Amino acid sequence: MRFLVLLLAISALRAGAAENGLGARPYMGWDSWSFFRGKPTVARIKAQADAMAARLKPYGYTYVNIDSGWFGSYDEYGRPKADAARFPEGVAALAEYMHRRGLKLGIYLEPGLPKSVWDANSPILGTPYHARDIAFASQNGNTLGRADRIEYARPGAAEYVQSCADLVASWGIDFIRMDHVGPGGGRLPADNRPDVQCWAAALRKTGRPIWLELSTSLDVRYVDSWKKYANSWRIENDIEWYGQGHPFTNWARVARRFDNVPKWAAHAGPGGWNNLDSLEIGNGAADGLTPDERRACMTLWSISCSPISIGADLTNLDKSDFPLLTNPEVLAVDQAGRPAQPLSQGSAQQVWRSRDADGSFTVALFNLGYAGANVSVNWNELPFRGPASVRDLWSRAELGVFNKGFGATLNPHASRLLKVTPLEKQRPR
């Protein structure tokens, strides 16, 4: 096993992926934003961690990531401080709590120099410089606009980021989600590639392995930078529904990921992964999705090899949703790290496939339309010749041998996930 991990890490470096030794496979865990929005507390996070350790850790879920709302101010050196009311014990104690349970703790940060730090002109730890020596107050430090742009050619700039990285590493943090990174989505234009580069270097210097994730809706034109410095990156806007009513998401927000992910698929691999955002499964009817749509979500996330970060309340997982999150054969597709591509996106009935290490194919059939329809694949489209055995990964059942292809009638927004194994040795085509 150690030799395999080493080979994957070497492969990541050769592919120009992040050089921190992490990301051999997509991470699996939970994120606080969907369920708690900006109101995480130590009691809420511990309860989620306990539920993960008890029920989900055996399936590979280990990351407990606190999103926006954990920090309330900045220390005398302009570094983030945990909100004392929500996390009175501090973050280090919470990280220790996770580690005792075999889990990992993540936190949320934003690039740039916070405006309150500029206003205070805070000193930069270990240097003669101050906040106003390193940043432009007139330029956006991120796509949200509540930070100023750091000029990394200025003395003290890299030292400021290093002081922040050293602090979070000293707490025992295992994961950072860097939000409002541009070029990409957001309210305002910003270019945070220098921030990402500096943070990646600073985290490596701490000596602690810390997964770096970038968000949100990044621009694919700059994917080489995201791959070089980060372990995962969001390719779309938030999946959560922010309108009236309680549903966490809706099919329209899911469906646009089918359109967007193919242009990113070739860039994912050991070291760095395309993140489709939180998986809104586990809340039952409150997911805002039909049972077929929930399965289609899990199918898409898995064949795309996206990190799987649950957005539900782990202490009260819906009984019918739990099997969707823990099917070992479906999770194995995600963890194999071979992102699928659609054969065509010319219609709402789509076939996505990837070639497996053993010569078989993982094939997903999707009906993205609003009426029942047949979705089928011919073996020469994969491509190979001759008969093949077909296994349904969701039902974990062998379906038999099929000579030329396979098809199924699917309900609206339904899917099938298959393993197709040619029975004859294939000649090069």
List keywords for this structure.
6-stranded antiparallel sheet, 8-stranded parallel sheet, single chain, about 425 residues, alpha/beta, elongated, Immunoglobulin-like, 21 strands, disordered N terminus
Question: What features would you describe in this structure?
Answer:
By secondary structure, the chain is α/β, with parallel strands linked by helices. It folds into 2 domains: 2-339, Aldolase class I (TIM Barrel), CATH 3.20.20.70; 349-422, Immunoglobulin-like, CATH 2.60.40.1180. It is 29% helix and 22% strand. It is built from 13 helices and 21 strands. The strands form 5 sheets. It has an 8-stranded parallel sheet with strand order 12-11-10-9-5-2-1-13. Strands 14-15-16-21-18-19 form a 6-stranded antiparallel sheet, covered by helices on one side. β7 (135-140) and β8 (147-150) form a beta hairpin. α6 packs across α7 (193-206), α7 (193-206) packs parallel to α8 (223-229) and α11 packs parallel to α13. The two termini are 34 Å apart. The model is unreliable at 1-14 (pLDDT under 50).
